[in-house]
């Protein structure tokens, strides 16, 4: 998955005044196994010795040991690995006596679980993908290093400006689970929503629908022309919330999403949830979902959509890069905030989910934690940010980095969507607070079953509320709440 990142991505604070200031992600986080949950709770092996810190200087503000090895493990997903390899080259240039061990894998959990158990984790990890390690568990079990030293260090470009002062609003907060420590640096900045071909929409002589009646009318037009209204990653139905959650926030207000994140009793029984579930179920009932969608993975559904078999797909902004080889040159990729129900919605059209994605972490037991943080400091420079945006068609946590770059259609549309949203940006936290609940239970067993026609909306609400209640009562997991 792209960055579910994905995805994206993963999902933040939907409850602060200016929600664009609460970016939280991720993206494509997936379900950790029970083995990992228990494994992270303990650190079995003897561990590894810490490298001796180096001398702090203006050029080395974090005090990196200039001869110590730095190991960096990247998730090899929709963003590829070239951007990270380029940043590694800068680290090697800055510390020519240091050896950098860089690797990329899609098997983050299975590759790194044994090393966490043994106390020998790498120094920097891009904890993303279908095998993402559960962030709430990592934080709750003290497995991660506090990134505050990185944030308080001088930025790579300007020694008079701290790293934290160069970041997009909300990035720091989204890396905080409890209190002041910052455990995660979300590197990408993901726009979630409903993605489509403007060319296909124009061919239907239609505009993007703002109300659900308009959505049904557009889907009916598409159906008459042999095109499905929607498809989605049926095997990973936790992609559906990328448009469904902000729709719930639009209809009922951010307080509904906050209550869901907080695992409050009956939060899923709110009328806004019921209305949005019934709206999505209508897509299934009226035959507007691409046939066979429940059996498609994210790549297959994105390919079918790019081929014009379906008009709309819920996704994150990594989709432009992840599907670049199948999206036609004249596709005119666009993204929109989710369609609402009607004029009585609590929030205006344009309300969207945007947040940090691609979570980078430095393990608490890393031998060279300073080196891992220094690699992130390099990546948060203007040059590295521009390189990322140019190569993978996505924004970064660095607040800028687009000057002089010709933006792609999807990126241009994403920037326009953020401008339209203004402060009406929501950021659900379930995706990074309770990964297993969000993906395996709400996503697969709840929404996936409903959209396949095996549960009614009422049954799905009841089932999902039950899952949330179980999580709320589970004393083996750490619980988080919006302030």
TrEMBL record:
| Matches recorded under InterPro entries | Bact_solute-bd_prot1 (IPR050490), Chitin_NgcE (IPR022386), SBP (IPR006059), TAT_signal (IPR006311)
Looking at the record's lineage, which domain of life comes first? Bacteria
What are the protein's UniProt keywords? Signal, Transport
Cellular compartments annotated: Cell envelope
User: Per the record's keyword annotation, is Metal-binding included, yes or no?
Assistant: no
Q: What is its main location?
A: other
- Pfam families documented for this protein: SBP_bac_8
Which PANTHER family is this protein grouped with? ARABINOSE-BINDING PROTEIN-RELATED (PTHR43649), SN-GLYCEROL-3-PHOSPHATE-BINDING PERIPLASMIC PROTEIN UGPB (PTHR43649:SF31)
The family line of this record is: Belongs to the bacterial solute-binding protein 1 family.
Task: Write down what this protein is called.
Answer: N-acetylglucosamine/diacetylchitobiose ABC transporter substrate-binding protein
Give the organism, scientific name.
Streptomyces hyaluromycini
Lineage from the top down? Bacteria, Bacillati, Actinomycetota, Actinomycetes, Kitasatosporales
Q: Which gene encodes it?
A: ngcE
């Amino acid at each position: 998955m792209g960055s579910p990142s994905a995805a994206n991505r993963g999902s933040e604070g939907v409850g602060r005044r200016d929600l664009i200031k609460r970016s939280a992600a991720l993206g494509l986080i997936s379900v950790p196994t029970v083995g990992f949950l228990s494994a992270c709770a303990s650190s079995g092996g003897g561990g590894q010795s810490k490298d001796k810190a180096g001398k702090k200087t203006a050029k080395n503000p974090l005090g990196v040991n200039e001869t110590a090895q730095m190991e960096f493990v990247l998730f090899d997903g929709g963003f590829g690995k070239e951007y990270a390899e380029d940043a590694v080259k800068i680290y090697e240039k800055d510390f020519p006596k240091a050896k950098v061990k860089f690797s990329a894998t899609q098997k983050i959990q299975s590759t790194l679980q044994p090393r966490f158990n043994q106390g020998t984790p790498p120094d920097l990890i891009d904890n993303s993908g279908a095998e993402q390690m559960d962030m709430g568990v990592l934080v709750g079990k003290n497995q991660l290093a506090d990134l505050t030293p990185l944030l308080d260090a001088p930025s790579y470009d300007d020694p008079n400006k701290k790293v934290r002062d160069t970041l997009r609003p909300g990035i720091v907060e989204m890396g905080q689970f409890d209190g002041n420590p910052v455990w995660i640096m979300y590197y990408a900045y993901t726009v979630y929503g409903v993605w489509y071909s403007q060319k296909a929409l124009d061919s239907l002589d239609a505009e993007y629908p703002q109300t659900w009646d308009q959505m049904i009318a557009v889907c009916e037009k598409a159906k008459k022309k042999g095109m499905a209204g929607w498809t989605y990653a049926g095997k990973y139905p936790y992609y559906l919330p990328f448009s469904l959650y902000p729709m719930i926030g639009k209809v009922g207000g951010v307080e509904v999403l906050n209550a869901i994140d907080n695992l409050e009793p009956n939060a899923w029984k709110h009328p806004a949830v019921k209305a949005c579930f019934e709206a999505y179920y209508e897509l299934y009932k009226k035959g507007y979902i691409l046939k066979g969608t429940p059996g498609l993975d994210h790549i297959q559904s994105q390919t079918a959509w790019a081929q014009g078999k379906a008009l709309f797909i819920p996704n994150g902004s990594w989709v432009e890069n992840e599907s670049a080889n199948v999206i036609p040159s004249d596709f005119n990729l666009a993204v929109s905030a989710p369609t609402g129900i009607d004029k009585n919605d609590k929030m205006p059209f344009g309300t969207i989910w945007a947040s940090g994605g691609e979570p980078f972490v430095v393990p608490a037991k890393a031998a060279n934690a300073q080196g891992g943080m220094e690699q992130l400091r390099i990546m948060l420079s203007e040059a590295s940010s521009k390189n990322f945006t140019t190569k993978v068609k996505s924004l970064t946590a660095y607040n800028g980095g687009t000057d002089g770059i010709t933006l792609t259609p999807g990126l241009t549309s994403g920037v326009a969507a953020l401008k339209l949203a203004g402060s009406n940006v929501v950021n659900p936290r379930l995706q990074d607070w309770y990964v297993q609940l969000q993906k395996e239970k709400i996503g697969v067993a709840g929404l996936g079953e409903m959209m396949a026609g095996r549960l009614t909306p009422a049954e799905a609400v009841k089932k999902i509320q039950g899952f949330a209640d179980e999580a709320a009562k589970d004393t083996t997991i750490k619980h988080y709440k919006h302030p």
